Amino acid sequence: MILISAEEIAKHNTYQDCWIIIYDKVYNLSKFLPEHPGGVGVILEQAGKDATLAFSTIHSQEMIHRYLPSDACLGFVDPATSVAETSKAEERRREAIKNRPSLNEILHLYDFKAVASRILTNETWSFYNCAADDEISFRENHYAFLRIWLRPRVMRDVTHIDMSTKILGYYSSFPLYISATALGKLGHPLGEVVLTRAAHSHGITQMIPNFASCSLDEMTIARKDGQIQFFQLYINKNRDISRKVIQDVQEKGYKALVVTVDVPSVGNREKDLRMKYAGAPPGIQNEKDLNRDQGASRVLASFIDPSLNWNVIKWLRSITSMPIVIKGVQTPEDAILAAEYGCNGIVLSNHGGRQLDFAPSAIEVLPNVIEGLKKSGLLGKIEVYIDGGIHRGSDIFKAIALGAKAVGIGRPLLYAMSSYGQAGVEHALQILKDEFEAVMRLSGTNTIADICPNMVDSKSLSNHSLTPKDYLSSNVYDRLVPLRSKL
Amino acid sequence: MILISAEEIAKHNTYQDCWIIIYDKVYNLSKFLPEHPGGVGVILEQAGKDATLAFSTIHSQEMIHRYLPSDACLGFVDPATSVAETSKAEERRREAIKNRPSLNEILHLYDFKAVASRILTNETWSFYNCAADDEISFRENHYAFLRIWLRPRVMRDVTHIDMSTKILGYYSSFPLYISATALGKLGHPLGEVVLTRAAHSHGITQMIPNFASCSLDEMTIARKDGQIQFFQLYINKNRDISRKVIQDVQEKGYKALVVTVDVPSVGNREKDLRMKYAGAPPGIQNEKDLNRDQGASRVLASFIDPSLNWNVIKWLRSITSMPIVIKGVQTPEDAILAAEYGCNGIVLSNHGGRQLDFAPSAIEVLPNVIEGLKKSGLLGKIEVYIDGGIHRGSDIFKAIALGAKAVGIGRPLLYAMSSYGQAGVEHALQILKDEFEAVMRLSGTNTIADICPNMVDSKSLSNHSLTPKDYLSSNVYDRLVPLRSKL
Amino acid sequence: MILISAEEIAKHNTYQDCWIIIYDKVYNLSKFLPEHPGGVGVILEQAGKDATLAFSTIHSQEMIHRYLPSDACLGFVDPATSVAETSKAEERRREAIKNRPSLNEILHLYDFKAVASRILTNETWSFYNCAADDEISFRENHYAFLRIWLRPRVMRDVTHIDMSTKILGYYSSFPLYISATALGKLGHPLGEVVLTRAAHSHGITQMIPNFASCSLDEMTIARKDGQIQFFQLYINKNRDISRKVIQDVQEKGYKALVVTVDVPSVGNREKDLRMKYAGAPPGIQNEKDLNRDQGASRVLASFIDPSLNWNVIKWLRSITSMPIVIKGVQTPEDAILAAEYGCNGIVLSNHGGRQLDFAPSAIEVLPNVIEGLKKSGLLGKIEVYIDGGIHRGSDIFKAIALGAKAVGIGRPLLYAMSSYGQAGVEHALQILKDEFEAVMRLSGTNTIADICPNMVDSKSLSNHSLTPKDYLSSNVYDRLVPLRSKL
Amino acid sequence: MILISAEEIAKHNTYQDCWIIIYDKVYNLSKFLPEHPGGVGVILEQAGKDATLAFSTIHSQEMIHRYLPSDACLGFVDPATSVAETSKAEERRREAIKNRPSLNEILHLYDFKAVASRILTNETWSFYNCAADDEISFRENHYAFLRIWLRPRVMRDVTHIDMSTKILGYYSSFPLYISATALGKLGHPLGEVVLTRAAHSHGITQMIPNFASCSLDEMTIARKDGQIQFFQLYINKNRDISRKVIQDVQEKGYKALVVTVDVPSVGNREKDLRMKYAGAPPGIQNEKDLNRDQGASRVLASFIDPSLNWNVIKWLRSITSMPIVIKGVQTPEDAILAAEYGCNGIVLSNHGGRQLDFAPSAIEVLPNVIEGLKKSGLLGKIEVYIDGGIHRGSDIFKAIALGAKAVGIGRPLLYAMSSYGQAGVEHALQILKDEFEAVMRLSGTNTIADICPNMVDSKSLSNHSLTPKDYLSSNVYDRLVPLRSKL
């Protein structure tokens, strides 16, 4: 066993020659550096130092063995010389947390996002907040709700409001579930289990992500008695791997399988890709040193099967008794197919605008899907959920009025979690509940069943004469100016 | 009787230990402080001092006994030592008034609002100016008018213009009334009676607010011979209280009862809620010290009955002979119900956008309501008024053309009152009158009856492809930027 | 005859005590000062000095006798002591002219406006550039053209383009005439005759304004052989005055009478009104010193007859043989009436947005008018012109395609004249001609007759979902902001 | 042979007296200076110096003889004294290139444009980037794509994506060709052959511009085996010249003749025109020194035949066997005529918005053209391409879905070439390919044939209620502001 002194390690702190300490072992990352999905910068910041804290925040220990060749490990740090150090990024994060507003001052989900934008590292912020291409669909997801107006009824006894509903037969305190989002530990050291606990506090369902930072066991253990969890899955090119996961999940008590079908390849998320170059030193501007086609998102998705098709439903039925939900449907045609193939539910979703820019918002697709199912005599055979753009109680109300059984919410809760932990997520859910209850009361609706289509005015929903602003194109446009007098 | 020296009182000037003087008595507000609907800041500013002036501007004396426990009163200030002091906020207000523009320079209602924004305290400005959630409906109320165009006729003798009309049979010099708005003394020491006097000068009706700062007697006494006042009422959970108010009001000569039906719970007015934290010292950032769910608006509304329904009309008819107007109708369906239940009038209103965000503007609902009443054979059985967004004479003209009997105006007059008192309100009304007369003359209409639907072009009124900008969401969006050359 | 020394006069230079010299006479303007339509400031700038230059730029000499009481004249300035002085405003103007761009650099009509905005005094700029209320119609006049697209045809021989047309039977080198605009001497010392000369150079018709700065004789004398002038008239309350003007005009060879019918009262032009207060000293902020309801526009229009109606056509026919054109028609209904009453032409116009805000643009009204005349069998019985918003050759093309015989242009030529005199106006007209010819050539149209309705796409013309921005309301709106971390 | 010393030449460095050295000869440009299409400034910068480098970057040597009279040449520079000098502009350009981002950091076509805007000289940037009048059509070309949304299908096997297609029967690796753009050497010293080489690398067709900086031979030689080139032609007033070019082109192996038909006269490109004055010294502000009506674009186009009409097709058929494509069609009517006249293809194009402002975007015209051809039974008889506004793979997908056979791209590749040479163009094409493949995969389409009309939602495509912003008019508008308190 080789012992290496902290002083020696500290000398290897450049792009060409980069050593770091993780869990007391010393690694030479010089070759791995340009391949790191999270960018060069975050590693160089740790070059020659103990990176255990920064590493463990994001990765499980087994990642080392999966990605590094065995000869990358040079030996152990000499305990007599080692000094664990807090990274500058971590210091900055802690300072931002210390100066965050009081949780009680947070009035809406935008506050959480604004606070999180200062607390998260640039890398995490870019990964969570990015979307595809010009991020038109990302913003359209929100703007589409702005084109729907309410039709409030008055003079109805609204003393008692019952917001509860059932999702695949399971009780939900209001028609919202926590959607699957990847890499929770980037935002909070405890990762997805924070969401598990908050979901229980509020009596709602959590959809566990395939790309969780926490292990399946951690998330299963965090579940309380009677609490409902669904499991979101990407189908692997190697079906055996998927089969094992599905059987494991069923045994561990997950109540439904949610198959994401809109990632045959990963979307072009440019904020995320930019990060790769953010910390690169000037010396490596050479065109061969770094290569395109990466970023955190791409690495994650490399095993997903692009040949996925409707036949997979039969196969799934053959290996599991869990209800099957298809996530990523975007047309009435596919909604009808899903119903015909016997799926139990569909999530209308454009993946938060992260996959295909100009994919329509789920809320715009929703009434067409309901209409399509109705015409095909399939309405009621399949539950329809939507996600994307939900920020206010009125958004939930609009979705229910147009035919959704429930809505999913993802990123806003990551921001709440990153800024205030479990208390933040619970506060965020409470805000949504309060807002939704208020809209129900002020609209004169006592139960979910009362929220029918004529409670909203969606005549302008499909009017796309105004699109979310395209910042790239306007940024490079030179505006015409008239002449003024000289000097 | 305990006498306490001003010097002693002055020592108790912190969040934990806060005494103030009101009407010569000394109160310990340490416990009450976090509960104060108007926020912590305004009280701390007075801590250890004589707060009589600041208090009396907003509250009637009886409020002390209603909200403070009897042991909060510690005794009397020793008159030998007391020194009344003008608060800094009051000094700032007076300075702003001294520097306001000449009243003759005020050309339109926006000038009043701009001037008032500097004169009012932050708390009052936030309370008057706030609206629900993203304030979409608040601004839509104005923008909807921008989507209506005029169809002016020429070559008509317009030497004589008669703007007068009747509201519930009572003469009005032009088709506008002063709508009910709460807490007038926040804006002007004399409160609502300023509006009463200006209404008389202009020969129009005033709708007295249930939440007036002035007492009913004050407002009744301020009424001149032949002057018309309506009374706006929130129905109390305790019907006996409402009955007494109604009978009192009828005896005192009010000519109509206007029942507000759109407040089963209070809207989520975030500017108002923010104020609660504005003056809080850093030491109390702890999450339990302050609690959400308050703000001036919420406290006011706690007694309103959420079980209110159409049966209340029969009960009202049984205890009063006053005409009954329902304020807050927002759909043709409810307009028809109001007519069928025998109401004398309805106010189409979304409560100035302060209740339910995305509730439609009254002006957009108006033509649908008229159409609905016509189809049901009820047109003419009930008078239809609208409020919300009226700022120009052309707005009044558009409302009349689309079928309104009259329009209500609220906040703009508060701004005029706050900035210039009664002269300000009279000037504001004169501007509206002049503008309305000009629109009538330039449109070739001599009387209110001439202002028929084909005097306007409202084809684009219901086109919602462009919504008022959602500032919160765009504020937290990171715009994409293309690369430029480095350095 | 009293002689007063320049030194003595110089002492009377305050708001309370204000003497000035005009054409060697000394006037006490102390009483007149607050009544001056052009504002207090411009006079105070001259107080105690010789104001002849400033006065004569704008007014004819007879104005003195019309507006000042005879006792305002105190005597003559003692020639031994008088010193004529150039005003500071005039110096500023000359400096701006010296620094204007070369005329050849002016590429479009916006350049002229930008240059003029620096050269004109604030008072003149405000008067020329102002419009009614929120200036929505003013800007809509331009924006409406942006909603019309072209349908260019290719592979047509466009070697020869003939842009000429006839207006009331008179040759015009292209389908544009100079419209009537008031007070030309505010922009250029020679006033309207500058336009007369440029009209001749380009072979187009000039519409002489009733409110010209130049006398009728000056403008008549400036006319060259064969040059066509129309006369624009406001009908006086006293018909005898109008009769005399009409007969005078006919004798002097004007070829048509254009009766403006959209000014029964003057529009609310707030930029113009603001000017009244611009120069007022702080000492007179008192609310009674200055009164509303004035500004240059209002004084001019006081004699116009608000009782004007269609009967006037018969009367006009009885006293003149000139063709009669009605200017200010804004609906198909009135266009049909004009044709039925035997008028020879109509100008669709909202008076440049200066009269009634939210009056539609002429270009939007145009296709409806053509349709209305067609349905009534009156198409071809009356010529239809439009004005308002014309800035580009493509605007002219669009108007012709939608049925206009010609378009009028006003303010843009005032800006050209104010900045560069006659050469400027000729350059402006040449730009329009070049642009119009280019559009004809690139659209594949050889003659005016080829410019038919299917050369344009006007499907979105009446879509008013996007209105010109309402700056007043957005200026006083406090935008919502999410919380950020403190400090 | 006259020898002139560098010292002597250096003295002639003013507007009135301007000598320069090109290829060792000395020219007196004093008379030519005001006529220079590229502006006075670029020449004055070289006055008295050796301009060979600057000249040769843009012009071929024969230009000297074509444009300068023979007596302009004064003799040879005395080699003993001459010193070649790098121009300041060239130094600036090299500095910008040194500081450009790494090519791998370039994520989309906007990055290239942003980088190029700093590298190109002002003159070149203005020439490349300019468009007609208010540049509405220029930007609309891009914005129109924003009004088209996608309808992605899921659960389809998209392992294999085949993007290849045929254009006029020739293989293309994806449905895009490099369109013809003038004066490539302004952007890169090697000019159009850079594009030829990149086209080969990517297996796509290049359309060679009539106004290339490179000679036909250079571009022919650069062609690799099997590589496809089309030739774009402006028909000369002198048909003999055109005939020779066509025969030459056919012999040299060009595969199709693309006749541009939308330039009977050159568009009014104001950014380009402005450049003429950019370097002019203050001394020549006199109105006669410079004249309008020029700029780089106008000089180029002076020989184009404005009498061009459909008869030309028969003549072309008589002299060439190449397929004939008409470029610049903008209506279904002309598309039908082109098919009837037997053309093999049409390019729907508004010439990048550089010809006629308010000409519609090709993408908006496309579905109407397809519909028109279908109704006339001509669909399939003629290939339809579009150009203008293509920046993303999704733009290509939308065009194909609406019926285009392929799309052309011009300026974005000039920016890539100017910033990074051939590697830049190849990277740009790779980005487009990657993006297009991703859209195909994420939409569930395996081949070009799968991209049918119902893969997109183009309902809002023709909704023009929102037009690209008109910067000139808004720049000269004085916004209304409400009064605030004074001081």
From TrEMBL, chains A, B, C, D:
Its main location: mitochondrion. Residues 1-78 form the Cytochrome b5 heme-binding domain. Residues 101-461 form the FMN hydroxy acid dehydrogenase domain. Its cofactor is FMN. GO terms for cellular component: mitochondrial intermembrane space. Keywords: Flavoprotein, FMN, Heme, Iron, Metal-binding, Mitochondrion, Oxidoreductase. One of its GO terms (molecular function) is heme binding. It catalyses: (S)-lactate + 2 Fe(III)-[cytochrome c] = 2 Fe(II)-[cytochrome c] + pyruvate + 2 H(+). CDD domains: FCB2_FMN. Belongs to the cytochrome b5 family. In the N-terminal section; belongs to the cytochrome b5 family. Homotetramer. This is L-lactate dehydrogenase (cytochrome).
